[in-house]
Task: structure prediction
Amino acid sequence: MDYVNYLLGRLLGSFEGAQPRFVAPRVVLVGTILDDLTLPALLDQVGVQVVGDDLCTGFRWWRPPAVSEALPPLDALAERFLQREPRPAKHRADNDPGRRLVSLCRDLSADGVVFYQQKFCDPFALDLARARAALTDEGIPSLVLEDDAGPAVGQWRTRLQAFAERLAEARGGTGARAIGGSSPQATSTA
Amino acid sequence: MTRYYTTSRFVGRLKPLAWVTSRAPIEILEAMGIASVCPEDYRALCGARRAATPLCEVAEVRGYSQDLCSYARSSLGSLWAPDEDPMGELPKPALLLCCNNICGKVLKWYQAVAAHCQVPLYVLDMPYVHNHELPPHAIDYVTGQLEDLIGWLAFHTLQELRPDRLHRVVSLSNQAVGLWKDIRELCTARTSPLNATNLFTNMVPVVVMRGTRAALDYYRKLYREVAGRVERREGALGEEKYRLLWDNIAVWPRIFRLFGEFAQYGARFLADTYTNTWPLVVAEGDPLVALAKTYLTLYINMSLQTRAEGLVDLARRFEVGGAVFHSNRSCKPYSTGNTIFADALQRRQEPPVSFWKPICATPACMPRSSSARASRPSWSPWRQPDPLEMLVSACYNPARRALHCCWPIG
Result:
């Protein structure tokens, strides 16, 4: 763990004074379990930049509150699990998936949202409709990609290209620009 | 039931009205003078009247996937397009009570309704029961929630819970549920007095009217009628050649036609897991603890092993010769495990089984029509065997112990 923290410290240090590298449309990737890196690679290929995510296997794990070190460990873990943002399968009265996602997009200056729907996950599918309606109300474009035990690479690429063009036009640019032009395989191993 | 739902529109104007999931402890609401309606039951009724598909489509246009529960889709569709609901929408709720002992997705459905109607939602969280024995912490957890629920209901409706009234309501509920259990047991008779259509259509009062005098009166009358049929050895549909078991929810849009097709071959579904989920009697003692135990041990909230054992027991007691597992795309919690249940039946040399894969409230996949079958030439060496004949033959042909039967689409 110390070594990881050391590496993260070095990475953060390297950002100081750096110029922004990306001018591509900015998207938030939203879903449950992303167990295959084909989609992020395709997003790279079509020239959009993932500036944040709301994935069960992504930043949802790291958002506050942190586990308290002032409490007994089990109490602290229980408190963390009860207070963190609820997963789609869980309930908290004050949770509104649409409002939360709109807020995330605003914070990250995102141009659009790509939803990654694992077809087996009904709770997320039910949240997705509400979240997408909230985005539409706020004028934030979104795209839904469904996955049923394996990415539909060709279809996804075509749809993502069209989505990227739409986002780029909305920004007033001339079109999406590829970031590095890496292949899905190359990026997934990077 | 049409009268019940018509009446509920007026009752909802006289006292607070709650939308509740089908296996929520409505005895508490009844005892507090809070009216309740059950959207699941109502959506089944819409499905049986073939009114669900256009409403599902309204929800699909708004982003709800076709893979989701058709009850949820048609219910949400009705909120956005009430004019599309041929039966009229349900009366607007004052509050929502969602109990997840039947399914996890009802939570999302009720969240969407709460957001749309801007009404408070109480989620009664029921832990899944992994073993035969109920763990004490699960009972404590649910009992605590029931105490909290009573306070929440009182806060939102200004109604109080009187202990004597709760005892009376629980007693009425127990009597109705007990009668329903007895009625189902009468189907163990050789020449069953009821078929699946009778069971599915007559279970509704025990779902939506538990704890009321009307439900008790209904089942008293029904018991007398069914017992009379047994005495007279009067079958549901005449001669009974094959005794079958049905697993899962009925295919509401075609309930009469589907079971009628089987009936043409003398096959009767006299036992099923769905209508059997109701013989849950609330025990004596602290009513909240008893309610917690009752609603925790619902069939679908139990482990697959427990459910398999219950299924095998049902098959034995009712002396069925075959079983059909309805692999219901619309209800994954109910359909999950049906291959395990089928294996359990076969391991114990119980009847052979068949699988069938439609969805419960929209007629997406159905067996071919009887008219189509009638138009085919009579038997020839090249004739495609009829799925129903295959099924019945598989159930009763020892050489073919299992048949996975996918019916033609459209």
In short: The beta strands of chain B are 17-20, 35-37, 95-99, 121-124, 242-247, 267-272, 322-326, 353-356, 402-404. Confidence is low (pLDDT under 50) at residues 362-385, 395-410 of chain B. Chain B touches chain A through 21 residues (CB under 8 Å).
